[in-house]
## 1
Amino acid sequence: MFDIFLDDAPALVVVLPLLISAIIAFMPSKIWPWIISIITLLLHLFLSLHLLKEISVSGLIIYEFGNWEPPWGISFKIDGVNIGLQLLFSIFVLVSTFYSRKIFLNEIDYRDSGKAYSLWLLAVGSLNGIILTNDIFNLFVFLEISALASISLIALGAGQNRKALLAAFNYLIIGAIGATFYVIGVGFAYAMTGTLNMNDLVIQLAQYSDGQLAIFAGMSFMLIGLMVKAAIFPVHIWLPPAYSYAPSAVSTLLAALATKTILYFFVRLLYEVFIIYPSYLSLFLDFVLYPLSLLAIFVGTVIAIYQDDIKKLLAFSSIAQIGYITLAFSLKDHSGVASGFVHIFNHALIKGGLFMAVGYFAILYKDRVTLNSLKGFGYKYPITSFALLICGLSLIGLPLTNGFISKLYLFQALYTNQMYFSIALVAVSSALAVVYFWKIVEQMWFSEIKFKSEKEDAYIYLPIWIITISIIVFGLYSTPIIEFSNLSADYLISGYQN
Amino acid sequence: MSNSFLIILGIITPLFAALFSYVCRYNNNLRDSFGIIGGLITFVISLKIFHGIQNNEVFQITFFTLFDGVDFAFKVSTLGSIFSLVASSLWILASIYTIGYMRGAGEKNQTRFVIFYSIAIHAALAIAWSGNLLVLFIFYEILTFSTFPLVGHKQNAESQSAGRLYLSILVGTSLIFFLPAIFWIWLETGTLDFQDGGILINKFPAENLSFLIAMLVFGIGKAAIMPIHRWLPAAMVAPTPVSALLHAVAVVKAGVFSFLVVIIYIVGPDFLLQTKSSDWLVWLACFTIMASSIIAITKDDLKARLAYSTISQLSYIILGAALASSLAIKGASFHIITHALGKITLFFCAGAIYVTAHIKKVSDLKGMGYKLPLIFFAYTLGALSIIGVPPFIGSWSKFYLIMGSIEREFIIVAIILGISSLLNIYYLLQPVVIGFTQNSKKEIKLIKAPLTVWPPLITGLGCLVFFFYANYFLNNISGVIVN
């Protein structure tokens, strides 16, 4: 009986959270929605592990919905590119859901608990759909579901600060523009090729071997739409307010995973589909993505230095970190793509850990966490503070943390491509990261105010420490992350086509 | 006791000292005694390792692989054994001195101070014994971060801004120049291990070597070559035990030690001599020596003067490394010992004067020589050693450096070294002259702090005594260079 479930594992990882989300939406209890979510996500993790096992045997799974054969039906594709991300996604979502309970209870009305977890699972399911889908229109659907779920989750922060509504509205409008761009691009592609399936698209596009203006226009629309969604500089403006005014648990989920999944799809589109027009691809990578990444790295870091609000500071740092990832992806070779994936994994952990710790501080402080409000927190809440310290050191990229591994591979990729200017910029930007991070440390440990240590909630610091320890473990033993990233790059760069 | 166990024990002893100090934080005497005990243990271990290295024993331990070709490993080199010997022996004296100083000056937060002091020593020892460049880098950063609380100890606006400057320069340069340089070496050679004769020869493009040397010398900001020297005078706001042990011995010596190690075991002196890629650095070092000596003359604050003197003396070592001839490297390596011994004496004395008489300025020292004869005696011994007057230990390293520059036919450098000694005489002995010749009308109340007097006397006499036993170290140092 169990096999029936396992056969449908690719669909279930997406459908299960979506289904459960509908069930718990109107549950009046404040604990049951959380318990059901946890059970759902445990199941989700189990299914992801099963997928990993399948992939290690077969190397590729194409799941056809309703047994409609692609290109007519919708299909999911699981291969070396996304299996690593799927696993990370599953684990991180479970940990952050565990973390979210006490945070939600503090930040939103407990009667909204059911709705909050319903939206939460909706976001989880749709983001997972982005990872698995093999259909460009289906992607649009998931993009929209995840955007609407995220926007509603962000708006839940209005109980704490009314600006959350503005942030959510901003995201709604800008996100809608991005999605529109994307769907226009899809329209172009469909008009020209009559297909929406990515594998089929590659085959159909081959007939326009020289390329056509309509194709290029469509591709550009799609890419720009995705760039808006992935918050690539300079179309990132929705991100900082959205992350900083959302309830803390939501910021954690969004910061760690939302942009990462879209970045993953972005690179997949580039290297799996658009690779058949190498001149267009290199034009886009060299003259659009590459300079924008450098700007993102520099501008994001500098703006972060001048932030007083800690969550905003972290959000701007995310802009810079997304810049690192896109910089790596713009390199057009195996080492570049692999190092981009390495940073996707590592940064998800680092930023997730940081947002978790700061989110807890927000609850303890009962107000927005600014630099000033952190005074003496290092003594007051040592367990969480210490986790924050380790995550921060990893963000800077010091050895023995996973941030260092990211930097190492990024440097290697840049060096093999002889991009010395970028190396210098990355080095300078990582030194500037010390400035904004040390401002936090200074307030926490070296201000004149002293506190006796207070009791911290194990339900909250346990998940934070799970992430923190994983940061150290992957800093010392980076093989799993490197293997998964190399696998992704192998599939993408070898021009792997089904 | 096996050799690898000895390394682990030596590295973790300071950590345990820190831990025990924290556990016994309510009993001041017990808390402060762990510094001395830890110092004694690490000193014995360092001595054992030093002798072992002389007898061609191998001290090595590998924990795990960090990434391709780079392990988390320790391996003691000849130079490392000398550095650890210096750091651990002076830690004993500095711990005794710290007790006298901190209590005499009534500093707050003494527990935090003692803890971070021990952690800094831990990092310095790990740097000394590191097996490859990345491990060295890791502990280099730990040393920076662990000394930050010591620099900002007073927690007022001045020490806070000094702490920020300290951290931003040291961490900034290490992340912008040092780490990329390490990556570069790794990408070209596939390893970062320290090997006799270096790892770069035949693997690294010779035309880029000058650039790599520049990245290293500016990246290792602790070596305080101009223009990356601003952090050192700023760090003088720290309590004097910090200035004495850390900013005269552990931190700055870790800087020049790292640079020497890179030159000897990574780049290889032969490769440097072939390509002459470090000749430009000779001139930059000379400039730093002269410029900081001149700035030192203008400083009235005794600690600031000593700080600039330190910058100048550190460049002697960089100069020796840049010359890369065997005599010059011998001199540079030996200068780590001689300058440490001399400069810690001077800082101990500056602190003792501050604690007993609350004087910071040279011009206020009028007549103090008669009131604090022992301190001034010790100060004079240290100063003479740094100036390089025989029979003080400092004369040896200067001798070898001058020989080294003549060997490389840099006659002007030899002359500059001579002029610098003259400047040393002026700014280091001026306090003594003022102390004994001019009379002050002011009545100064003296506070007794005997524990701050004995350590400088011991180190000062050490400068004299070790002149006669210099061969003991010098023979050992010859093993540093494989030609």
## 2
Amino acid sequence: MKKKIGIYICHCGGNISDYVDVEKVKKAVENDADIFLAKTTMFACGDTNQNEMVDDITNMKLNGVVVASCSPKLHLQTFRSVSERAGLNKYQYVHANIREQVSWPHSDDKLGATEKAIKQVKAAIAKARLAEPLEPMTITAQKAVAVIGAGVAGIKAALQLSDMGTQVYLIEREPFVGGRTAQWERIFTSNETGKEIISRLYKDILSRDNITVFTQAEVVDYSGSIGDFKLMVKVAPRFIREHCVEDNLQKAIDVCPVEVPDSFNFEINSRKAIYNHYPSEYPYLPVIDIQNCTRCGECEKVCKNIDFSQKEETLNLQVGSILMATGFDPYTPADNEYGYKHIDNVITLPQFKRLLALNDSKLMYNGKVIKNIAYIYCVGSRQVNGDNKYCSRYCCTSTIHAAIHAKEKFGNINNYHFNRGIRTYGKQELLYDESSRMGDIYLQFFEDGEPQIYKEGNKTIVKVKDVLTKYKELEVEADLVVLVTGMVPRKDNAIGSLLKLPRGRDKFFNEIHMKLRPVETVIDGVAISGACQGPKNVTESVNSALSAATKSFSIVSKGEIDLEPVIAIIDKDNCTWCGACAEACPYDAIQKTVDGDKSYAVLNSTVCKGCGMCLPVCPSDAIDLTAYSNHEIENMIDALL
Amino acid sequence: MPNTAPQKAKILVFSTEKISDPAIDMAGLLKLHYPPTVNTITLPCSSGVKPRWILHAFEKGFDGVFIAADGSDCSYGESCTEKTGNIVAKTHEMMKERNIDPARLKMAALCSVCSEAFVKHVKSFNEYLIKSSK
């Protein structure tokens, strides 16, 4: 049948056309053989263009379509669906990537970018000329999802997946669930504490049969791909038997002589080697920090449920999708950044929030009652010289909320906010208003006029040239200086490295597209949610978790997934059976068959995965791959010159 | 006036859909620049590149061929690196027989986040190809 190909070249707003002369690209290909239609379009993915494509394919009876736009990772499926809607086999659609691989990397060379775009489109046309109608191959998808990280995002995602009837493995590296949220006191807007939120959520988890929670568990190896990931999970022992007598456990904690900085409280106090952070923490069982335990035996004397014979376990899980919810780390100021670790009453925002939680009647730090608090904003965020160029979004609101909380809880507190412009977006603006009405003082600076902190005898002085009073030099004698630190990616990225998840310029995990595919990654079947993707508050984390859960569910829900129908094709007339292809195949998909006096290779198409490893080893070149035949590849090579 | 514009070698890259293509895409996203004469053909796996395709590229006028190999990340199995290496070794021999400098075929393992490594490889390959053509 004669080929009738339609070409659509996308401006992508200006993402492509600012660097690639798309009209020139169109002119360069519109008169090529088999081209029946060539158009440029502002947004190829827009509904209007999609509908136009359906009409064009239907009315002109096109049997080949090329869209030159962004990465196929983003819109290959979109345009395949368009083709299907128009009655065209989706494998007769070919995608040319002229954004990620042309306009963006060659934005420094518009002429070169345009020439390359022409070649890429011609290569796609060469492929489209030979593209045959195909049917997808279907594989079984495991009806289970692994959620990595049991903070608020991970727990909400697990519950959502459970509601939809999916088996969930919730894997938490720490001994207790709750993540960062469990560390916070009152949370805007509900004023529930983090503990209350997490307690409510994990009680819900406990009522589900289809959620299995692992704590002190880490994914150490994985294999497989979308629909069938195999995870190896190591679970560390707690060294305490379940169903123990709580009083005895408390005695064991009391007698433990070890004191180590408590990371739950951001090291403003210490904990024992046997510990939990608060009584209702899940699992309802303390843990022994074996790294710091001296094995003195004191705990064993008062509690019979201590069990040092417990061993690490290794679990093998099979899941159809992986949902990442591994959270963030708070930014740690550099040594002497605004006096951090050099001036004794300088702490970070997370430390301040724990201080509010740990103090009852009076706000005390280092044995002194706190009255004047200076908050210095954007520490570690919006850096001019550092790597963290981004705004962490949550910290303005979090600081103002904590400042109001301090005033309400302890009274007689004066709050001084040294800020670079308050970003309490949306409903959070109400807090800013409330704090101003309560008498909090806001002083503003720009990046070139950072506040100075210094000691004058026993006094800690914070000085700034305040933008809001025409650069008047103002000083505050602060009892406590709170550095408003933002979010940074987790320091320990072991799981990200294992799964090879791409990270963006901010070093957080990167989605395929911020708006169009906001929770998917380039690793098919792996979704991201919460603050591991970028700074988010609790509400935003939960929203993204629900979105990621829905995406993971869409992968496993049917119990099967359509895969590309790419398999080896053996030309039996040309095959003389040497066995090299069978040896190269990692799936044993090729076997010898004998027909009279001729031996040749035959393919088990249900086992073949379409890797192509058998192709280059065949001495008589008797094997091709669907959609990657010699003819297709060599025509593409010719077009790229 | 002398032409001071830098020369650019024609480089064909065989990349892979799941592993090196995302890295090359991310190089674009991060606006990392490399010569626009670097063009990519995507395959399922680097161990499926046929020597005849590489030779075809040289015969038609490409200056260099770069295989962005899956390495140990290959979803089709651990043997990918070895098999891709075998293809390169076999093609090198075929290139020698045809008096083509074997260094014009290069292979490096690229993971899905190896954007900077990709740009570094193609830039240095481009420089080598320009130098060797003089």
